[in-house]
Amino acid sequence: MFFSDEVGSFDTRFQVRGNQKNSEQIVILNIFRSDVAGSINMRGLRARHEIGDVTDTFYWNRELWTDLLKKVLAANPRKIGVTLFFPDSVVSKKIKAEDFPLFYDSKITWAALTGPNERPEYPAFAKSDHSNVGSIELLRDQDGVIRRFSQPTGEIEPMVQILSENTSPLSRGLSLINYRGDNTVFTEMSVNELLSDDFPISSLKDKIILIGGEQLSSSQYMTPLGSGSRQSVLAQMTNHLLEHRTIHRAASIVYLSLLLILMSITAFVMAQYPQTVALFFILWIATVWSALSVWVFDSFCFWLPINSALGTVFSCYLIFLGYQANYIERKHFRLQQQQKYLQELEQLKNNFVSLISHDLKTPIAKIQAILDRLVLKKLDSEIQSDLQTLRQSNEELNRYIQSVLRMLRVESRDFRLNIEVGDVNELINDAVIQLAPLATEKGIRIETELEPMFSSEFDQTLIREVIVNLLENAIKYTPVDGKVILKSSEKNGFVEVDVIDTGEGIPEEEMPQIFGKFVRGKDQDLRTKGTGLGLYLVKFFIELHGGQIHLESRIGLGTKACFTLPVEQEKNKSGTLELGKVKA
Fold first, then answer.
1. φ, ψ for residue 164 (rounded to 5)?
2. Distance, CA of 418 to CA of 402 (rounded, Å)
3. Are 427 and 460 in contact (CB under 8 A)?
4. Which pLDDT does position 412 carry in this prediction?
5. Residue ranges with strand state E in 410-557
6. What integer pLDDT is reported at residue 217 of this predicted model?
7. For residue 102, which of 79, 73, 82 has the smallest C-alpha distance?
8. How many other CB atoms are found less than 10 A from the CB of residue 300?
9. Bridge-partner residues for 447, per DSSP?
10. Fewer Cβ atoms within 10 Å of its own Cβ: the N or the C terminal residue of the chain?
11. How far is it, in rounded angstroms, from Cα 110 to Cα 570?
12. Residues near 174 by beta carbon (within 8 Å), at least 6 away in sequence
């Protein structure tokens, strides 16, 4: 509950707040032992003074008090409170008749005590109606610290209420003292200063003056801000009532509502944001609440506990953290199961496609052999044309199957590069020879500009396929009587190969997806045949070698495909690169 940390936080709240603005309405007048002892000729009292056994009665001296009260009343103060208790037995010498108005002045309130059995003990100067006396009883908590107003007993009204002229009733246990600060917040002076000729008597006008004895170790009163004298504690209480600094509390339902709001905000933050962001918001909420609590308390004297509120927020945070951890663990387990299932499904798919592709290779090869024999025979021209068409279709089907098989092979988990020492120029020349008939059929010239270079390390099978694929694409998308140029060079430890054509070019909007799986240009779906796997495999093979590939194309001017390979490769390099990391 929000009240649970009130006592524990009460002292800390004032210590953190520190001293507030000095009070200009209250003045503390201290009487030192030396002021009284100098006028006393009793050795017994001197002895008691020397050993420190000093009580309120030690500070009684008729001449001293006469001079003191005359000087103070001459300043026309608002009220005077004498915090020392002087019983009849102490005032041994009779007060002169002319001094009666002085000691019984209506502005003076004399200290009264509560004796055994709650019976009041009145001072020597109490009027018959007790209108000029006030109780100076201070209520201590179990740890000896004064935090609350004492409850009025009997017919003695608390002195602080008389001095502040505050008639609001004080309820024991609920009226907490709102300390302004330590003793330095009030103006303090000694009797010697007051009785000196150069003292500005006008500085006491309309002030509330509390007169008390010197602060001794045996007469310390513990407060949330340290020890103090009786008159300083009474000054704090008087200032509290004078400035209406009562600490207010809301009804329990209001605190409960605030607690539920904090819990709801914490739960919302934990549910909507990642743990790191949520922790930042939780700390921000805690900081804002603490600052708001301090500001409301200092500005409006309204109590908003901090410890219980922060405990609620962080407890809620820890509970949700545990729930999220359990949720993530269960989700991770489900993802592992799903991943295992998908892997099995992927393997089944690959096995099925591989099986079908391998089973199709044999009948395709037989069909190809039969068509080759029939083409060589002298048959009718129409039949000969049909055989050529069948032969081309059979070759396209074979290429499709080979592309699928290559994709399945490189995507398998046990795929590895077969690194060998080779010459890229040699692979380029082999590709030119292999595709020369296709270029001749379209009237396309193939030119090479190959720089002599040292041998480099790469998988010759894969790089040969890369070069063939790029050259075949260049021939396929270059119009009749066009030109394809192949260049090679070595720069900064990398082999660079360029394949340049004079085709129609690739639209700019299609460039980001050109290396995707099964991706083909929109305008080429009906004009040229293909699987859309060529450039996907090219990029995959090049990046497995630690190289890079990029395309440059302009509509109507052609396309340039450029790839680079490091001259030296890491031995036994694994080809288990995640396909999701291949840049499109």
1. -85, -10
2. 19
3. yes
4. 62
5. 420-422, 445-450, 456-458, 483-491, 494-501, 548-554
6. 56
7. 73
8. 11
9. 485
10. N
11. 100
12. 148
| DSSP helix/strand/coil, 549 | strand
| Rg of the chain over all Cα atoms, to the nearest angstrom | 51
Phi, psi of 147 (to 5 degrees): -120, -20
Chain segment 504-544, per-residue pLDDT in tens: 888 888 888 888 776 766 555 445 555 667 888 888 889 88
Rounded Cα–Cα distance for residues 249 and 251 (Å): 7
Q: Which residue has the higher pLDDT, 90 or 233?
A: 233
At residue 206, the 3 state secondary structure works out as coil
pTM of the model: 0.56
User: Which residues does residue 145 pair with via DSSP β-bridges, in sequence order?
Assistant: 222
φ and ψ at residue 37, rounded to 5 degrees: -65, -30
Query: Comparing C-alpha atoms, which of 466, 469, 478 is closest to residue 440?
Result: 478
Q: Which fold has domain 414-581?
A: Heat Shock Protein 90 (3.30.565)
Residue 137: is its pLDDT beyond 60?
Answer: yes
Compute the distance between CA of residue 183 and CA of residue 163 in angstroms, rounded to an integer.
Answer: 19
Domain boundaries, the chain: 6-242, 249-412, 414-581
Residue in this structure with the two tokens 């004080």, named with its chain if needed: 170
Question: What is the spatial distance between Cα 501 and Cα 445, in angstroms, rounded to a whole number?
Answer: 10
Q: Which of 323, 266, 224 is nearest to 14 (CA)?
A: 224
